[in-house]
Amino acid sequence: MAGTKEMLDSIDKCPSINCLVLTSSMSAAAPVPEPKIKDETHWSDDEAQLKRGSIYGCLKTRQEKLCTEWAKGKTIRFCAICPTMVLGAPVEGSSGISTMGSLLRWLMPGGRSTAPNDSMSFIDVKDCAAHHVAALETNAHGRYFSLVESWHWNDILSTLKELYPEMQLDTQFKYEGSDIIVPTKFNLERMESLGVEVIGIKEILSNSVQYLRDSGLLK
User: Fold this and answer.
1) DSSP 8-state code for residue 152
2) How far apart are the first and last CA of the chain?
3) CA distance 194 to 7
4) Can you list the pairs that 46-54 forms with residues at least 24 positions away whose Cβ atoms lie under 8 Å?
5) What order of strands is seen across the sheet that includes strand 85-87?
6) Mean pLDDT of 120-136
7) Which string of b and e fits 5-20 if b means at least 16 CB within 10 Å?
């Protein structure tokens, strides 16, 4: 948080800066219990996140709250982009694969063999970047989600197995309990107002698996 405060203090001393676009996270928009339809008015409880050990979520929530409060009453235009899990090829020359490492671990032996009773949402890295650019170049202000939709892990693993047949799943990998959850629903009207046409989850996963193959990280 100290780094964020220093950045905001520096902006205060530089009147030529008229827009701040923050990369926040959907972890800052994860109230418990989850609403039937999630939108940008929903915030996480940072104290509860800290108590349950979600340090990343707590810090992202506090960071965005700090920036939001700082921007009140100022002429500077402030936008927060809240991405979900970002997948896609990293920038050429990058030394790491970031969240693509999670996808790689799911696909490798000993990774994901059964589906938890949960859902996850995704966004392609290029679409996430486009949301940031649109926030900077338009008259956008406030929070914007950056995601496609949410799938149950049954569907995520089924699709990954289709795209990467070598993936080792249990014979009965799908969760079939009577309490199976409904994937998170989102109101994406604000995000769509940025004018970015996002690609779907299957295409995101397909492109990502192909990148891991092409890079030699998967056979």
Assistant:
1) E
2) 41
3) 26
4) 54/27
5) 85-87, 119-124, 150-152
6) 97
7) eeebeebeeeeeeeeb
Q: What is the mean pLDDT of residues 179-208?
A: 97
- Residue with token string 């989102």: 186
> Smallest Cα–Cα separation from 81: which of 161, 136, 119?
136
Tens digits of per-residue pLDDT, 8-20?
A: 999 988 889 999 9
pTM given for the model:
0.93
- Range in 80-94, 112-126, 188-202 with the lowest mean pLDDT: 80-94
Name the one residue in this structure whose structure tokens are 């589906």: 115
Chain centre to alpha carbon of residue 10: 28
Residues whose CB falls within 8 Å of the CB of residue 35, separated by 6 or more in sequence, listed in order = 42
Distance from C-alpha of 85 to C-alpha of 56, rounded to nearest angstrom: 13
The residue whose two tokens read 């970047």 is: 129
Strand pairing partners for 151? 120
The reported pLDDT for the residue numbered 64 is: 97
